[in-house]
Structure formats: C-alpha cells, structure tokens
Amino acid sequence: MDSSNSTPEVSEITSVSKSDNRPISTIVIIVAMQAEALPLVNKFQLKEDDNSLFPNGVPWVRYHGIYKGLSVNIVWPGKDAVLGVDSVGTVSASLVTYASIQALKPDLIINAGTAGGFKAKGAGIGDIYLPSVVAFHDRRIPIPVFDLYGVGSRKAFSTPNLLNALDLKVGRLSTGDSLDMTATDETSIFSNDATVKDMEGAAIAYVAELLKVPAIFVKAVTDIVDGNKPTPEEFLQNLATVTAALDKAVTEIVDFISGKSILAL
Ligand code: SAH
Questions:
Q1: Does this model's pTM top 0.70?
Q2: Looking at ligand 1, which residue's alpha carbon is closest to its atom 11?
C-alpha cells in the first residue's frame, strides 16, 4: 500500500472525560528555541528553576510562575552540550515532553514555535496557525500499516471556542527532522495536506497521546517554503519579528485559557 494514495488514519491525541469541568490549573508550553522562549518567559514573568526537575546534567530548562491563576511552565530543551546550538528537532522535543508530563502532570500541553509555511496553501510570513492535525513527513516505511505508523497523523485537541475568539489560522502541520525539504519530503508533505512545516509538532503529539494529555500547537510562519528565498536566510531574517507575533498569540491563548475548563476551550 502506498501511503500517498491512502487517506491517513488520524487518531485523537486524547479523550478528556466529559465531566471534567475543573478550571485548567497547570500548562506546559514546549518551545524549541531560546529566541522563541525568552520573550514569553519575560511576558509571563517566569523564573528559571534553581533545582532542575530533570535528570542531572541534561540541558533542559523549565521556567515557571503563576500567571492569571495558572501555573505556567515553559520548557526549552536547552543548548546542545557539545555544539552550543538550540536542541531543535523531534528527539529533544519528545524527551522534554515526556519528562515535563511526568514531573508536572499538566492539564494541557502547548507546543509554540516557528514554522515554514506554504504560500500555495495560503500561508504568509507572520501568520499564526493553530493546526488541527499533525503528521510526520520523513518516516517512510513502505509496508502496509507500518506506512501509517510512520506518518503518525494525530488530531490536535479540539478548541472551537478558542478558534472563535482569536484571530488564528487553521491548517495541517507536517513535522520532519530537517529544516530543508527534499523532493521526497515534499510529496509526503503534500499528502499530509500541510500548510505549515516544523521540526517538533508531530513528535510532541505522539508523547501527549501516549500519556493522555491534551495538546495544541501554535505555529508562526518565519519562512515561505514554496517561495524564492533560501529558507535559512529567510528564517533568520524574520525570526525576531515573527517571534513577537508568536508571543502575542501565545499570550492571548493563555489569557483565554485562564479560568476555563479543558472542555470549554
Ligand atoms: N538556523 C536556525 C536553526 C533553527 S531550526 C538557528 O539559527 O538556530 C528551525 C526551527 O524553527 C525548528 O525548531 C523548527 O520547528 C522551526 N522551523 C522554522 N521554519 C521551518 C521550516 N521551514 N522547516 C522546518 N522547521 C522550521
């Protein structure tokens, strides 16, 4: 079976109990890059932990504080211990998501970050997406059923009221471990029907589903994948302004969440 010709099966990240009307108390915001994390840390006036929740020696960082009655945690996988660059990508994202859920038992995971956007699907620089579905585009296993496992399509937790209240765009997110896009990736991204492309989302969705925590994704477009500028250049050029737009959106989302139950989102 060729996955590009089949409709991917999409599983729900979590099933929340229908009677869960308690206000959300703890959220974990997973952010891959320091440049994305620090403005939010300042905005919510969070403090870096003195004693890490995480195993000795790992570079993972948690910032924590109380904002509008919510326990807000921003978790960043830190800088690579040897190379000194942000630990972007699916492996670090999965590990910090797992460790944060184990340590903090959050009511909700928010993965906030930058992404490439496809102008053919309507994306522009600075647009903010709240993806409805996330999937991988670089896990090719051309064996029946394993192909679907590789694609790993998952629905984000459904937040109709949040979408109604805020000015966010909806589309699908495709995740892979490369910033560039090969022709083979492009075919998979097309069959994932993606509007935005990142390096963490589908991995975080996998862990959130495993541990039954609702997860949503907020992705700000730093570069146009099907445009004419080289991605690394365009990414760096737009990172500061787009990060400011991302912060604004995440703040609005957290403001909206404050005082509500998970089912009211
Ligand atoms: N050159 C950057 C590297 C960042 S990697 C640096 O100087 O540090 C890109 C990060 O932004 C990842 O966390 C990824 O999720 C996101 N991203 C932005 N644009 C992307 C794109 N076109 N494709 C994949 N990921 C992208």
A1: yes
A2: 114
